[in-house]
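Researcher: We're reviewing a set of sequences before deciding which ones to prioritize for further study. For each one, I'd like a predicted 3D structure that I can look through quickly. This is Carbohydrate-binding protein. If possible, include the structure in token form so it fits the rest of the review sheet.
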Amino acid sequence: MTNIKMLLLAGLGILLLSPACKKDSGYYNYENQLREFDGSTLEFLQSEHQYDSFLLAVERVHLTDTLKSGLYTVFAPTDASFKQAIENMNTLRTIQGRGHMFISTVPYEQLDTLVCRYIVRDTFASRAMVLQDGIGLTAIRYNYPMHGKFNRTDAEGHVNGGPGVITFSDTKGVIYTNRWSNASTVAIDIKTKTGLVNVLDKDHMFGFDEFIPRMNPTVSTPWNEFPFYIPGVIGLEQFNRGGNKVAYLDFSLNNQGGQYRPADQVDITTASSENGLKVGWTETGEWMDYTVQVTETGEYDMTLRYGSGGSDGRVHLEIDGKPVVGSALVMPGTGGYDSFRDITTTVQLTAGRHLMKIFYDFANFDLRYLKFMRKGAPMTIPGVITLEDFDNGGEGVAYHDNNTGNNGGKYRPSEGVDIDFSRNEGGGYQVGWTETGEWMNYTVVVKETGYYNTYILAGSERSDGVVHLEFDGVDVTGPLKMPNTGDYHKRQNVTTSIYLTKGTHVMRFFVDHEGFDVKSVTFRPLN
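Model: Here's the predicted structure for Carbohydrate-binding protein, in token form for your review sheet.
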């Protein structure tokens, strides 16, 4: 293990501990045998004075009352697990030019993710874990999968003649045990009036091995699970994960807008005139990173939507650290920071996965989203099909719409398809006012024959919307029910899998029953 990796692993506890532990004896005096405590699990942890850091974290994520009365099994990390880790983590943060963090300042969602994995629903004694493969356990929140397995250690020449130990594992949602994160106990089956407590070895990495990179990252990673496809739309509030000076550079001390990703320092607020989100309070020299997947090498129309009270704002893009030719924009004033317009340029992009940066050369603007479209070429699969970009040809050829006007009027206003701005996060547009029997055509190029996971991003206040997809006139999905999300602009993916053949095709999006808005269809290879 490299020194850096050891440093990262050790650092995990920094986030959980306040500037100093209340007490840290540096050793354990537990015996590995059944004990009983005349009180709740919370009272037991408080009485031992070796769990002060854990208890502080429990309090911050609002689980204190749960440990007073609920029936749970706790795998308790002690203060000894945190002491050196805190020093190492903050040493690394100092090297990276970041402020120190403690339990009281760690973002809530990160602390919640970690703490909940140490508390298991219901009570499970070690005897329930003696099965050959152990047993699955469920973390207290989010149905997160954990695992427990009981073994006897070897002692004095006797195989399995020593004390019993539970291996407690974060399965990370996969079946492959070599990818799990494991922790061993030093004391087990401590019975309280409200559950069981097992004490974890002070040297364990469990829980912390992913927590530290998330809190103290050295590389930026996609905001969502996957990179943004290009061609496609990038809501600029969805910059990479990684924090300040890694995934973005922001000079403010906090998120001044606070309307999205409040734990990050990028300032995000509502674009009230369009009911979406925007990055505001921009300062010259700031930047944001986005992991992207360019589907084809070639020329792209790049459109930036922004608002500005000035007339000389300037930005440019970088791909993998190099400026993108043609991306430098001088942004005319729009009449105000909440009055938006598009500015378009042509850029040359190379196929593959890249790290894209938008850099503020002179900042006097608010930013909504970027959109990339191939110049004179069909959209590709795998990739994302932005549904407002149906084929040219008009009514009855490229689309059928039951009324002649564009009810939204926000994009392609002379066409009959009804298009509005896509509100909330994500940027771009969506097709709305859908009616039964309507359809839209898209010429696409499938790059490889095979199965594709297909994601239709839609929202509705109803429960009766139904669609299907056709390729060259053949229904490839069957009827797909659109979800009732509570709002036409609160979107969820409807997922299916289809088989496609390599080559150029016409995809048709067909409305079998009205009652939803829809934003895009994304195709990802099944493997």
